[in-house]
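### Sample
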Amino acid sequence: MKETNSPSHHPANARLKELLGLVRHSFVTHRLRLLLGFIALLAVDFLQLIIPRIIKHGVDGLANANITQIGLMKLGGLILSIALVIAVLRFVWRYLIIGFSRLLEQAVRNRLFRHILKMDAQFFEKYTTGDLMAHSSNDLNAVQMACGMGLVAAVDAFVMSTAAIGFMVHIHGQLTLMALLPMPFLAIFTRILSGRLHRRFATVQEQFSSMTEFARSTLISIRLIKAYTTEKFQTERFGKLGRGYVQSNLRVAVIQGLIFPIATMVGNLGMLLVLWFGGKLVIAGTISIGDFVAFITYLYMLVWPMMAIGWVTNLVQRGLTSLNRIHTLVTSKPALPELENHNLAPIAHPTYSLRELTFFYQNETQPALNDIRLELGPGIHGVTGRTGCGKSTLCRLLARLYPVMDGQLFFDNTDVNTLPVDYIRAHLGYVGQEPILFSDTIAANIALGKPDATQAEIEAAARHAAIHNDIIELSDGYGTLIGERGVKLSGGQRQRLALARALVCDRPLLIIDDGLSAVDVATEHEVFNGLQQRLAGKTVIIVSNRIKLLSMTDRTIILEEGRIAYDGRHDELLKQSSLYRSMYDKQMRQTPIAEPVP
Ligand SMILES: Nc1ncnc2c1ncn2[C@@H]1O[C@H](COP(=O)(O)OP(=O)(O)OP(=O)(O)O)[C@@H](O)[C@H]1O
């Protein structure tokens, strides 16, 4: 036999093994919990199967007139006690097995989350937030269902149907064959209908999320909607989404309404056959009335396992598809090198060296940066240029958010591709174009990168970012909550808070990617003084189109279509670069530079 044909080497098997590897650890860790859960489940099945035997005993006793009222009461009491034990055991298995599926879901979710946080910018361009949210809700839910209820239903259906059929055969083999004739149809029906039910339910979920997303985006932009008087239009669109949602729900209700009547009908079809042939057997004295009643009870018991077979195959199929999607995510490799940080010593004054660096975004034919040669050491470096010239790209590459080719970017004279990404990042503070603040206190927002920062350190950073005075004017000072439920800050205040966050970490490199654009001109000067004081001897890169700010830097790099067009001090650039000159003329007409430029 060829090796590829052997089952253990079959690619599909290998893939399945890999997929199950994602959940295996949870099964092993919680094996005792599962064992107890399944013991309880099997005990329930066993007890359920005993009840028809007791009924048979009672009915035969009545038919043969050899049972007393006390005897009947005793049987009734026995059934009641069994029912009680069943109730307790049902609780136990549900608690243990469904609890297990939730623990498994949590383990996979944590793994997924950990992995997503490790990924780089390219990954987040490939997968949208919506995709990732869908993976962490719908897909995890499908896996949880398959490993919880799916597993229970599979075991339960197998045990119950085998035992019930065994008991039925014990009563009468031919009658059993007759009674089972319609059962495969039941499994097939459930399989088809539950598949359809799932697809329709997925549509309901999608529509629900579009409706809530629409409501959310409407509410957050309520001022804009009022300003443009589009309330009526928005209401109509919301109404349309709502109507779609109701229709989809009705389509789900149709299937739900069909499943049980069809199941009962098929069950009853079997019953009809049993009544016909079984009745004849009773009349002929081949089986007792008690056997007949017990047989019917077992037949009813078979309806659920038959439905479960159809349902479980769907659950398993969905679970595997979802596990496959999660697996693709958690095994995707970041484009940046994943190197271990073997306690590399931090560098006090690191430098960057860009050597003929050219960078393309994924699937782009034009480079975003082209042949960049640049040395960045201690000092304040300005970067400017027209929109789209590559300023942010440069910052992102320095922060190691995107991969670069070997031999093009050096961190302290070492090729960045030979250094762990987190080692380089641990040296830098980053202030992006959009300050991202969390719904938390101001102090916690500043201390994000240094959770153990003292109040004095937080305040010092806030002073250097020229935001301290604004903070102490707020009702709770540094304890003031910001975000949706808290105080709203102006754009400039948010940017300065983000700057304080970078300063508190006290790292030797600071990149400010247009992070001061909303700060007013007077405060900008204060911020710059704060930076100069705090960051003496460090490397600071400030992207800005504000000439006043650039005039205070040690040098400014002007980018044009991804290339360095000019690199010099303010007075040199005024003479050399027409772009810089025209920016200067335009901005000075609005706010002349108060002091002489160095
Ligand atoms: N994620 C991306 N994928 C593909 N192309 C991108 C991506 N980000 C930026 N670009 C392109 O790369 C070029 C440089 O963009 P970049 O954001 O670096 O410019 P910028 O100078 O910072 O512009 P702005 O001043 O408007 O922020 C632009 O042509 C832009 O369209």
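Strands lie at 352-359, 369-376, 379-385, 409-411, 414-415, 428-431, 509-513, 539-543, 555-560, 563-568. This sample (ATP-binding cassette, subfamily B) is used throughout the tutorial notebook.
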